[in-house]
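Students often ask why inverse folding is considered easier than folding. One informal answer: many sequences map to the same fold, so there is more than one right answer. In these notes we will look at a single instance of the problem. The structure comes first.
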């Protein structure tokens, strides 16, 4: 049976999810406030955010979600001490449970269909359901953020539905090239037993959702994600688009490492994948840092969790010999902006880093 999808966004207008390297109006973050995300290590986390915002504001506005006035006051102090131009920062009083804005924040779409040349620049928000990664109970406030911001920004909003049910999707589960291709993993979206987002939903139905709501008619499926990933397979720790035809995919040379088999299987699989025009993507290996543990737990340290902003590519680093190699690989592939390492050893104790805590808002006008 073919899936029954709800009506298209905005009176039938075609929308697409732009690639991350396309021009941003702003980057959204949620100011860290939940100390249980970094138990015993929360102290340095706001200062890491300060460093991130300092680099982001060199090329775009940063919009910060804060729960209460006290959070905003503390954020302003830290950002000011970090050398941030506060004129480029806007605060929004919105209640959140946690700070992983990539996964619960609004997925902004741009009108213009699937072609690389836009026919319009109106924005909309696709209202995918957030259910705490099908794992955590403290997600009810996070689940309302996208709808709330659509009202605040006066943007069209449509709950994404499949067969009469809200479709669950986190932003970190997908990556797009903005031309009609999206990449994801079977572990995250098709596992029927562990952290199942959409029970009973088949591969073809997921692809139909991506087609209608993201303007991505072509879905590239990888297998499993990396060890230590609390999301059960998010692709943004594994494989990323760095251009319309270019991917980076993590590789692990140590056959004794927990990541070795899954990453080799994905490397074999990606050789057979095709882009929206039928061509093969150009795939470049991205190294992995040495295994990172804290309190006996393997952490999802990965250079693939970088974020492409207007002025820079921010890359998590881990005091590891491969830091320099990873920065060099990305600098060669993304040559139109500076590649900057952000120390993420403390940050990754929260089981996510730079891409997980950011969400881009595309520019609504031609620049």
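Output (designed amino acids):
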């Amino acid at each position: 049976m073919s899936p029954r999808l709800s009506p298209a966004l905005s009176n039938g207008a075609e929308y697409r999810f732009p690639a991350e390297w396309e021009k941003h109006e702003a980057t959204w973050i949620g100011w860290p406030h939940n100390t249980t995300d970094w138990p015993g290590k929360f102290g340095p986390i706001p200062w890491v955010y300060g460093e991130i915002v300092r680099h982001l504001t060199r090329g775009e506005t940063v919009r910060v979600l804060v729960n209460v006035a006290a959070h905003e006051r503390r954020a302003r102090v830290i950002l000011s001490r970090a050398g941030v131009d506060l004129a480029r920062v806007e605060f929004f009083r919105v209640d959140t449970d946690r700070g992983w804005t990539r996964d619960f924040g609004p997925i902004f779409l741009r009108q213009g269909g699937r072609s690389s040349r836009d026919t319009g620049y109106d924005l909309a928000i696709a209202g995918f359901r957030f259910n705490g990664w099908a794992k955590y109970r403290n997600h009810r406030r996070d689940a309302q953020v996208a709808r709330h911001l659509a009202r605040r920004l006066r943007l069209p909003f449509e709950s994404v539905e499949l067969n009469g049910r809200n479709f669950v999707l986190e932003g970190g589960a997908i990556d797009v090239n903005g031309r009609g291709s999206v990449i994801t993993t079977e572990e995250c979206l098709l596992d029927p037993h562990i952290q199942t987002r959409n029970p009973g939903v088949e591969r073809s139905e997921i692809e139909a959702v991506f087609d209608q709501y993201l303007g991505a008619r072509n879905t590239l499926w990888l297998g499993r994600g990396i060890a230590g990933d609390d999301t059960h397979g998010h692709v943004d720790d594994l494989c990323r688009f760095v251009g319309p035809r270019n991917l980076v995919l993590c590789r692990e040379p140590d056959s004794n490492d927990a990541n070795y088999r899954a990453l080799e299987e994905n490397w074999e699989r990606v050789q057979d994948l095709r882009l929206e025009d039928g061509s093969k993507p150009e795939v470049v290996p991205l190294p992995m840092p040495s295994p990172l543990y804290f309190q006996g737990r393997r952490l999802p340290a990965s250079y693939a969790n970088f974020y492409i902003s207007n002025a820079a590519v921010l890359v998590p680093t881990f005091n590891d010999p491969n830091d320099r190699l990873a920065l060099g690989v990305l600098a060669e592939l993304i040559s139109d902006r500076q590649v900057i390492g952000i120390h993420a050893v403390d940050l990754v104790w929260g089981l996510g880093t730079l891409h997980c805590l950011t969400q881009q808002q595309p520019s609504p006008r031609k620049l």
